[in-house]
Amino acid sequence: MSRSLQVVVAPTCIISGYCRNTAPDIFAAGADHKSIVKDNPVEESDALWEAMEGCPVEAISATELATGDVVFPEV
Question: Is 0.70 surpassed by the pTM of this model?
Fold first, then answer.
C-alpha cells in the first residue's frame, strides 16, 4: 500500500532537473527555474523515491501525512 506524502523542494535546489526528468508527473520548474512539486500530497512511488535519492544536493524531503513522520531524508 502506498503512502500519501507531503513533498517539499528546498531553496537549495540547483536546477539540475533530475527530479523533473525522473518524475515529471510530480515535479515541474517554477518561475525561478528551480523545481517545485506540482501538487501535494503525492502518492509514494518508485519514481518519487528515485527522484529524491538522485537529487545531487538533497533538496527534496518527504513527510508521511498520516503520521507526520519524515520518510526522506532518513533521520
Answer: yes
Task: Using alpha carbons only, give the angle 31, 17, 63 rounded to the nearest 5 degrees.
Answer: 85
Q: In 3-state terms, the chain is what percent helix, strand and coil (to 5)? A: 20, 30, 50
Extract the C-alpha cell encoding 24.
Answer: 515529471
Give CA–CA dist 68/64, Å, rounded. 5
Q: pLDDT tens digits for the chain (75 residues)?
A: 689 999 999 999 999 999 999 999 999 999 999 999 999 999 999 999 999 999 999 999 999 999 999 999 987
CA atoms within 13 A on the CB side of 74: 2
The torsion angles phi and psi of 5, rounded to 5 degrees, stand at -125, 145
